[in-house]
Amino acid sequence: MTARTDAVIAGIDRLKLDFLAYLPSSSIAPIIEHFRVRSGLAGSPVAFPISREEEGVGIVGGIALAGRRGAMLIQDNGFGNSLTALTTFAIAYNVPLLVLANTRGGLGEYNSMIHSFSGRVPAMLDVARIPAFLVDRRNSRDDWSGTVAEAYRHAEMTHRPVVVLMDFWAPEPAAGI
Length: 177
What we know:
By secondary structure, the protein is α/β, with parallel strands linked by helices.
C-alpha cells in the first residue's frame, strides 16, 4: 500500500460506514482489498462489488434513504455510466451520496482512449451541479483522509451527491506523500 491509499482507508474508517460498494479498479485495489477482507467485521462496513456505476448509485442511494451509511468506490470514467442516475435520482430526491473515484487520464496514464473522457469529468460534474473535490500529489496524507471524511459530511449536510476525485497516478516521493 501507499501513503495515499492508507489515507483513503483512514478517511473511510472515520465515516463508520455500514456499506461500501465498489467497482474493481487496479488503482484502488488495495483500498478495496482492505475493506473486502474486513467486510462485516465489527467496525468495518459490509463491502460488496457492483457491476455498473449507476447500479451503485441506486443501491447506495437506497442505503442512505433507509437511514444507513454508505459510499461507493469507482473510476472517474464511470461517471459516463452514472450521470443519469446521479441527476434523476440522487440530485432530484436530495439523496446524500459519497462517491470516491480514482482519476484516469492524467500523468502516467497509459491508456490513450481514457484521455478524451476522464480529463473532462470535473467540468461534467460541475455542469451537473455535483460538488467534486480533488486530492492529488500536492495534498498531504491528512488532506486525503480529511477530504474523504469532510466530503461525506458535506453530502449529509447538503442532501446531495458529493464526489472526491483521487489522483493516484503521480509517483509518491520516497519520504511519503
